[in-house]
Amino acid sequence: MADKKVSQLVSLTTPTSEDLLMIIDDPNGTPASKKITIKNFFGAVPANTDLKGSTLTVRGRTTATANVNLTKTTTMNVAVMTIGSSPSTNNATTEGWSVGQMRFSNTYLYIAVNATTIKRVSLSKF
C-alpha cells in the first residue's frame, strides 16, 4: 500500500468506531505518522455520526444545520426540528416518532410528548 496515492484507495462508506485513521502527530515539531480509531478521534461523539459541512446527523435520525464553535469541553442540549409534512395522526408510535421529536410545517409546530401523543401549536406572525 505504500506505493499508492490516497486518491487511489477504495472509499469506505460505512465506517465503524474501531476503524483506523492515519494522523500526523506534532506536524510543527517532530512529525510522526500515527494511527487513531474513529472512536478515539471523535471522543464522546457516537461513531455513527455523520459530519458534512455544517450539517450534523446523529444515528441517522436527526439533522441540524448551524454554525457551532466549541472552544472548551461543554455539554450541549439541543432541540432539533425537522421540516416536513403534517403527521396524519396524533399518535407518535403510529407516526414512527420518538419522544421529544419535533417537526414543523408552515402552520404548526408538532412535538411528540410521549409514545402515544403528538401535540401541535399554531404558528402566527408577530
Description of the structure:
The chain is mainly β and 126 residues long. The protein folds into two domains: 17-70, no CATH class; 79-126. It has two helices and nine strands, in the order ββαββββαβββ.
Layout of strands and helices, then pairs:
Blueprint lengths: L19 E6 L6 E6 H5 L6 E4 L2 E4 L3 E4 L15 E3 L8 H4 L6 E3 L3 E7 L2 E6 L4
Parallel strand pairs: 6-7
Antiparallel strand pairs: 1-2, 3-4, 4-5, 7-8, 8-9
Integer average pLDDT: 75
Sequence of secondary-structure elements? EEHEEEEHEEE
Strand order of the largest sheet: 6-7-8-9
Q: Determine the number of helices (DSSP H or I, runs of at least 4 residues).
A: 2
Percent of residues in helices comes to under 10%
Number of domains: 2
DSSP strand count: 9
Q: Key terms for this structure?
A:
single chain, 126 residues, mainly beta, 2 domains, four-stranded mixed β-sheet, three-stranded antiparallel β-sheet, 2 helices, 7% helix, 34% strand, elongated
Nutshell version of this structure?
The chain has 126 residues and is mainly β. The protein has 2 helices and 9 strands. It has 2 domains: 17-70, no CATH class; 79-126.
